[in-house]
Specification:
The chain has about 525 residues and is α+β, with helices and mostly antiparallel strands. The protein folds into two domains: about 1-180, no CATH class; about 325-515, Nucleotide cyclase, GGDEF domain (Alpha-Beta Plaits, 2-Layer Sandwich). The protein is about 65% helix and about 10% strand. The protein contains 13 helices and eight strands. Strands 1, 2, 3, 4, 5, 6, 7 and 8 form an eight-stranded mixed beta sheet that branches. α1 runs antiparallel to α2. The two termini are about 75 Å apart.
Length: about 525
């Protein structure tokens, strides 16, 4: 609440300063540049007091109107808990603030121009259409224009410093009923202020001084020319300072948001996706910042998908699938299939609390899956206490058989280490059997009802499962087939076991124990 009151006080001081600047411009304009437009008496203190009183009344009226309009902004600290309709009103008023404050002040200057340029001359019987037009122009267009531009740009600058708290997601475009001051219109307004208005003032100055020269004697004419020289230098100096200041202020209102977007892009280029580009305007630059944030949100989602997907497959397979180079339409693949199954699973489950079973299984599967992925394997599925994995598919690798055997050896080592930790905590150790076979399989995305999974079909899959089952009969933990042994060569030490007949095959199968 204190911050809101402080902001309101700042806006009031901006309004006071802007109107004081406008009053000074009006006074100098009619005293120095176009003193023939009004019949001003010699400067006295009463004139200064009178001007200050009128100035204070106009500022007070504008301040009261601005405060009444901006009252909903006092609820900015309560914004997260406000009803949607009230929150929408607060956000809309926050975006409308520069336009409304500037509009209220400009309306005051329009009224001042009509009162002093039309109302007062009519009341005193000194009305002249030409002189009244010059007074309205000097009061409203010159002084009022300078005041309005100053108040608008300063208020907009102050408002932008608060918008990131009112719009943490940067969704300014979602608010309806807000003026959209485009960059083109902004630059055109600046051009009018720094280019057209000074030319118009110089034109008026030249015309009024030319009229004064008509019928003047040589001494008076020389005084008029000397005064005109001083006036032009004064106007040039003030105009240059005002033009440079306004241009810098307005240019910064365009360049600063662009620098923020550029900085956000640089952070993304270095891999930082956790930030966003501040959205502080409703113009094209604000739209660019919002579009960049939407793109950044999409990149974060894609990165999350990649990270999540990477928990199930290796980074190489993940990148191939996300890049669209693996279509999964069905193809014959030379691959090595691995099956792993826990021993004495049913008695263990019956003797263990269900939640503990789930925790232990998750720990076991985590260790085994890491060993498989470390050798560029793909875990196809977890079936109860069984793991099915493939090497050489979907991304072809020439040494898939050796990778599968190395993965099995790593699984053996990880199980020993895991069991050591279990025994240290008073839990019984677990055993598993691993069967490996190499052959040609049909690989592709299989499923229905909107749910697909990458699966292998063919006799090599069945044989790998049967070989895994043989580990119980031979009381070993890793068995490989003849095809796998031939593929890995002599790099791995194996012992040949007696040939056996497995279900679904007529001929006997040669199997080898990995030492």
């Amino acid at each position: 609440m204190m911050e809101t009151r402080s902001s309101g006080s700042t806006y009031r001081w901006v309004s006071v300063a802007g109107n004081f600047l406008g009053a000074t411009v009006a006074y100098l304009y009619f005293r120095v540049l176009d003193n023939a437009a009004v019949h001003l008496p010699p400067l006295q203190w009463i004139h200064v007091v009178h001007s200050l009183i009128v100035f204070a009344i106009l500022v007070a009226i504008g301040t009261v109107l601005s405060q009444a309009w901006a009252r909903p902004l006092e609820r900015v600290p309560e914004l997260p808990s406000l009803p949607p309709v009230e929150a929408e009103l607060v956000r809309r008023r926050a975006l409308q603030m520069p336009y409304v404050v500037a509009g209220i002040n400009f309306t005051g200057w329009v009224l001042a121009g009509l009162i002093w340029g039309v109302g007062f001359p009519l009341a005193t019987g000194t009305f002249s259409a030409y002189d009244s037009l010059r007074q309205v122009f000097g009061t409203t267009a010159i002084a009022g224009g300078v005041t309005t531009a100053f108040i608008f740009f300063v208020t907009e600058h102050l408002s932008r410093q608060r918008l990131h708290r009112i719009f943490p997601e940067g969704d300014l475009s979602a608010v309806r009923g807000v003026p959209r001051l485009t960059v083109r219109v902004r630059l055109l307004a600046i051009f009018l202020m720094v280019g057209v208005v000074p030319l118009a003032v110089l034109g008026i100055l030249a015309y009024t001084r030319a009229l004064a020269l008509l019928g003047a004697d040589s001494t008076t004419a020389a005084e008029i020319v000397d005064g005109m020289r001083v006036t032009i230098l004064f106007l040039l100096g003030v105009g240059v300072v005002a033009a440079v200041g306004l241009s810098i202020f307005a240019a910064n209102s365009v360049a600063a948001p662009l620098r923020d977007v550029e900085g956000a892009m640089a952070r993304v280029e270095h891999g930082h996706l956790d930030g966003h580009a501040p959205v502080v305007s409703t113009d094209e630059i604000g739209s660019v910042a919002e579009g960049f944030n939407r793109m950044l949100h999409g990149l974060r989602e894609r990165e999350m998908v990649k990270e999540t997907f990477g928990k199930y497959v290796t980074p190489e397979i993940r990148d191939e699938i996300l890049a669209g180079r693996l279509h999964g339409e069905g193809e014959l693949k030379e691959a090595t299939i691995l099956f792993a199954d826990l021993r004495d699973f049913t008695p263990w489950v019956e003797a263990t609390e269900p939640r503990q079973v789930v925790r232990d299984l998750n720990e076991y599967f985590t260790e085994m899956a890491e060993a498989i992925r470390a050798q560029r394997g793909l875990v196809l599925q977890f079936i109860g206490d069984e793991i099915e994995a493939v090497f050489g598919a979907p991304v072809a690798t020439p040494d898939h058989a050796a990778l599968a055997v190395r993965a099995a050896l790593d699984m053996r080592g990880r199980l020993r280490a895991w069991n050591a930790r279990r025994e240290a905590s008073g839990k019984r150790p677990l055993r598993h059997g691993i069967g490996i076979h190499t052959g040609t399989v049909l690989a592709g995305n299989i499923g229905g009802g909107g749910r697909l999974s990458y699966a292998l079909v063919g006799d090599p899959v069945n044989l790998a499962s049967r070989i895994q089952g043989l580990t119980k009969d031979f009381k070993v933990d890793i068995l490989i087939s003849e095809a796998t042994r031939k593929s890995i060569g002599p790099t791995v030490s194996v012992d040949q076991l007696p040939a056996v007949r497995v279900k679904g095959r007529v001929e006997e199968v040669n199997v080898y124990r990995v030492v």
